[in-house]
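testing teh design pipeline on a random one, pls ignore if ur not involved
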C-alpha cells in the first residue's frame, strides 16, 4: 500500500545519502476531526524529532537537543504579545494532549490563532536545529527529507465537510506555512482534494 511505498521512498533517499525521516501523523493527531495548520506544524516537528531521535538513539520528549522539546518550551514558556499559553507541561504530555485532549486543543488553537508568523518562524528554527543534528550525526547527508504519512486518513463521516474545508484551507491558502526552509517535506493529501 501507500505506507509501504513511502517507506521504500525513505530507503531510496537514505541510499542516496539523504536523511529521510518517516512518521505517521496518526501518532500525533486525532485525524477524525479537522486539523489546523498550526496543529499540523506541531505534529511535523514532533514526528520529525521522534524519527531522528529513534535514528540517533535519544528521546525526543526529554533530550535537551530535541527540536520538539524546545518547540514545546517556546509554546509553554514564551509570552507572545503579553499573552502566554499558560499551560505548563512537558513535551511528552503536550504530545499526548495534542492528540487526545479536546479542551487542550481548543485552548491551543485560541492561543495560536492570529499568530501564524511566530509559529512558522519557531517551526523553522526547530527544523533548522533538526537539520544541524542530522548533519552532525550523518556527515555525508545531502539534506533532510520529511515523509509525513496518513494525512489522507483525516476524515470522518460526521465532520467530513469541516475536515475537507480545513485541509483545503491548509493546502490552498496556507501552503507557505507548511513549506519549511531547511527541509523537503512529502505530504500525502486526501485523494478527494485532487478530484475537484
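output:
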Amino acid at each position: 500500500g501507500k505506507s509501504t511505498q513511502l517507506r521504500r521512498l525513505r530507503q531510496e533517499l537514505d541510499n542516496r545519502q539523504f536523511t529521510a525521516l518517516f512518521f505517521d501523523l496518526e501518532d500525533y493527531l486525532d485525524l477524525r476531526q479537522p486539523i489546523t495548520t498550526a496543529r499540523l506544524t506541531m505534529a511535523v516537528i514532533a514526528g520529525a524529532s521522534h524519527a531522528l531521535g529513534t535514528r540517533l538513539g535519544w528521546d525526543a520528549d526529554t533530550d535537551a537537543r530535541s527540536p520538539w522539546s524546545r518547540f514545546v518550551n517556546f509554546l509553554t514558556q514564551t509570552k507572545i504579545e503579553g499573552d502566554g499559553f499558560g499551560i505548563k507541561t512537558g513535551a511528552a504530555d503536550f504530545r499526548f494532549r495534542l492528540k487526545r485532549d479536546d479542551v487542550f486543543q481548543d485552548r491551543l488553537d485560541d492561543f495560536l490563532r492570529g499568530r501564524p508568523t511566530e509559529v512558522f518562524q519557531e517551526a523553522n528554527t526547530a527544523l533548522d536545529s533538526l537539520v544541524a543534528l542530522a548533519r552532525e550525526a550523518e556527515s555525508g547527508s545531502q539534506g533532510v527529507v520529511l515523509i509525513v504519512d496518513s494525512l489522507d486518513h483525516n476524515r470522518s463521516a460526521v465532520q467530513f465537510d469541516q475536515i475537507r474545508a480545513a485541509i483545503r484551507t491548509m493546502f490552498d491558502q496556507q501552503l507557505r506555512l507548511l513549506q519549511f526552509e531547511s527541509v523537503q517535506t512529502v505530504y500525502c493529501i486526501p485523494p478527494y482534494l485532487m478530484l475537484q
